Amino acid sequence: MSDNYDVIIIGGGPGGYVAAIRCAQLGLNTACIEKRINKQDEPALGGTCLNVGCIPSKALLDSSWKYHETESALADHGIKVKGADLDLETMLKRKDTIVKNLTGGIAQLFKANKVTWLQGTGQLKSGKQVEFQPLDGDTQTLQAEHVILAAGSVPVDIPVASVDQKVIVDSTGALDFDKVPKRLGVIGAGVIGLELGSVWGRLGSEVVVLEAVDDFLPAVDKQIAKDAQKQFTKQGLDIRLGARVTGSEVKKDQVVVSFTDKDGEQEETFDRLIVAVGRRPYTEGLLSQDAGVTLDERNYIYVDSQCRTDVPGVYAIGDLVRGPALAHKAIEEGVMVAEVIMGESTQLNYDTVPGVIYTHPEVAWVGKTEEEAKDSGDAYKTGAVPFAANGRAMAAGETGGMVKFVADEKTDRILGMHVVGPQASELIQQGVIAMEFGATVEDLQLMVFGHPSLSETVHEAALATDFKAIHVAQRRRKK
Question: Which candidate among 17, 331, 398, 445 keeps its CA 20 to 30 Å from the CA of 54?
């Protein structure tokens, strides 16, 4: 094994492995250090996202939705199914197979691009040296011209609900329940809590979500969040806002959770409890004291707009740095850094990074919310159209939700797009593309959208922004 590389990347998650492949494509001698051991007790690439995050959770989200449809929704289409049985073991095996196929695919991509995969841990030291501790073997000191830190993040622990991965679990443990809990508690009504809660709710759990803040999805446009909360509640999720957990006690195979809300002290007993209160950057052991890299007060690594740290030649990406903890943001930062290293002119547009919640219906957004536009003090306009007015949504039995635009009143430029409804994760990309190219609402109004399609709701929402909607009644705002 070589001791010298053009680029060493610490972390093999979405940001790290993509950065490694792009660096290699650009002709750089590249090594990627990753320590993960998977469920099969084998080294694995892909980080949290592919192994215990984005991918396995989406597999369960899709499987649980199919089960729900079979149980409850197909009859509306004239398809009657009697005695549908849930085979949880097979569902979980399918999830694991998808994970193994994807992570194995990354290993093959490393081979194809001649990326050296170093299995173990890495620590940045002064002078762009990296101390590499193999999973098996003696510590080695490696030298690089450039180092990319991509160690990712880990779930936040809270003292009032200590995770044991048996009764009280984090997002990883919630992917592998051996049976469907009769009563499931979830601490945190964020992206992870809602997604995992909805999985087990569809499979038969009575789900109670405890959220400390008083607003539902405070980072999401309020109109969209209100609609989403209404639909999730209708589906059976018991979402309790302003519920601050104060303690928990495991008793045999159950957990008693204490919390306070507007009515005072409360208690609930659950068969399983998911702690999903956010994630924090994983910097433990990543930096030696003389590494020279600056951390902020929340333990994030300080970087500029192109992910440079205070140490020349050292970069940090993904969940280690400012911005949303999203795999797709980490991926594009990895590509950007690789190209910056090669002197190419490139810049990630952080204003057009979309957010998605993969519940059913999905929630997705990009750019400014109406509240942010209002707080800016600039004149703005909005347009929103429900999927209930869309023929394709009606045909599919997916009429809940809406598409909404926020635009600059003077320039007509799109400031934000927000969706709650079917295929929101796909539809939002239309807003991303439009904003990336500086499109106006009128640009979308003048485009031809296929009929019948869900995308017509995007067109109709753009029309509604200027009171031109055809398929919904509108009342013009008073000047």
Answer: 398
Annotated catalytic residue within 68, 360, 451, 471: 451
451 is catalytic: yes
DSSP 289-333: TTS---B-TTSPBP--TT-B-SSTTEEE-GGGSSS---HHHHHHH
Q: Would you write out the chain's pLDDT as a tens digit for each of its 479 residues?
A: 679 999 999 999 999 999 999 999 999 999 999 999 999 999 999 999 999 999 999 999 999 999 999 998 999 999 999 889 999 999 999 999 999 999 999 999 999 999 999 999 999 999 999 999 999 989 999 999 999 999 999 999 999 999 999 999 999 999 999 999 999 999 999 999 999 999 999 999 999 999 999 999 999 999 999 999 999 999 999 999 999 999 999 998 999 999 999 999 999 999 999 999 999 999 999 999 999 999 999 999 999 999 999 999 999 999 999 999 999 999 999 999 999 999 999 999 999 999 999 999 999 999 999 999 999 999 999 999 999 999 999 999 999 999 999 999 999 999 999 999 999 999 999 999 999 999 999 999 999 999 999 999 999 999 999 999 999 988 776 54
DSSP state of 264: E
